[in-house]
Write a structure and sequence with these properties.
The complex is a heterodimer of chains A (114) and B (114).
Chain A (H helix, E strand, L loop, with lengths): L2 E5 L2 E5 L4 E8 L5 E7 L5 E7 L5 E3 L5 E5 L4 E6 L8 E8 L8 E2 L3 E6 L1
Parallel strand pairs in A: 2-11
Antiparallel strand pairs in A: 1-3, 3-8, 4-5, 4-9, 6-7, 7-8, 9-10, 9-11
Chain B lengths: L4 E3 L2 E4 L5 E6 L6 E8 L3 E9 L2 E5 L6 E5 L5 E5 L8 E8 L9 E2 L3 E5 L1
Parallel strand pairs in B: 2-11
Antiparallel strand pairs in B: 1-3, 3-8, 4-5, 4-9, 5-6, 7-8, 9-10, 9-11
The chains are: A mainly beta (114), B mainly beta (114).
């Protein structure tokens, strides 16, 4: 069975500081990994997706994530936080081709202070 | 291209009633998945439909059901509502891809059961 662990239900950063949101996964097969963002009263927006083509994945809004198989991690980073980045972030994993069902982590709320 | 749409956006029901939620996928997408989001349980997979057939099912009671029409639009139904069914219900659509399907989410339907 697959699972995703996001360390830290809340992360606080100052505007301009580095953003680091942690995600560890467990999967019996090479997974597809995703990061989604959810703004208040909205659905989930795809930030980026890992497909094994490259270990460093660049996404929208300046975010990127690095796949580390040895650590079973897929942490999300952004060099400089902006106030508009305040939202809840979800890491998710799916099985190999032919299945789209996502298993989500519990989410991390990112708080950005001026 | 228009995104995933869900109707209604907000719904208030009382215990024991039933409810039907609707989802229109992105044009060309044939897979539709449903998720329940609650503060306590997070994001949980309900079921997935592909070409009018249920392809995958999560661990929810039989009160939760769904269907998909020939135009890929999907509905989910919850019968005999309970207070614990209060949640944000998210629909996602996807297209088969060689490097893993990517799910695109709608804005959700927020259901409140009184």
């Amino acid at each position: 069975a697959q699972s995703v662990t996001q360390l830290g239900s809340h992360v606080s950063v100052s505007e301009g500081a580095l953003v680091l949101l942690r995600c560890n996964y467990s999967s019996s097969v090479p997974p597809y990994l995703f990061w989604y963002v959810q703004y208040p009263n909205q659905g989930l927006q795809l930030l980026l997706k890992y497909t094994s083509a490259a270990t460093l994945v660049k996404g929208i809004n300046g975010f990127e994530a690095e796949f580390k198989k040895s650590e079973t991690s897929f942490h999300l980073t952004k060099p400089s936080a902006h106030m508009s980045d305040a939202a809840e972030y979800f890491c998710a994993v799916s099985r190999d081709s032919g299945y789209s069902t996502l298993t989500f982590g519990k989410g991390t709320m990112l708080l950005v202070s001026p | 291209k228009a995104g995933v749409t869900q109707t209604p956006r907000y719904l208030i029901k009382t215990r024991g009633q039933q409810v039907t939620l609707s989802c229109s996928p992105i044009s060309g997408h044939r897979s539709v998945s449903w998720y329940q989001q609650t503060p306590g349980q997070g994001l949980q997979f309900l079921f997935e439909y592909f070409s009018e057939t249920q392809r995958n099912k999560g661990n929810f009671p039989g009160r939760f059901s769904g269907r998909q029409f020939s135009n890929s639009r999907s509905e989910m139904n919850v019968s005999t509502l309970e207070l614990g069914d209060s949640a944000l219900y998210l629909c996602a659509s996807s297209l088969p891809q060689a490097n893993g399907e990517t799910q695109y989410f709608g804005p959700g339907t927020r259901l409140l059961v009184l």
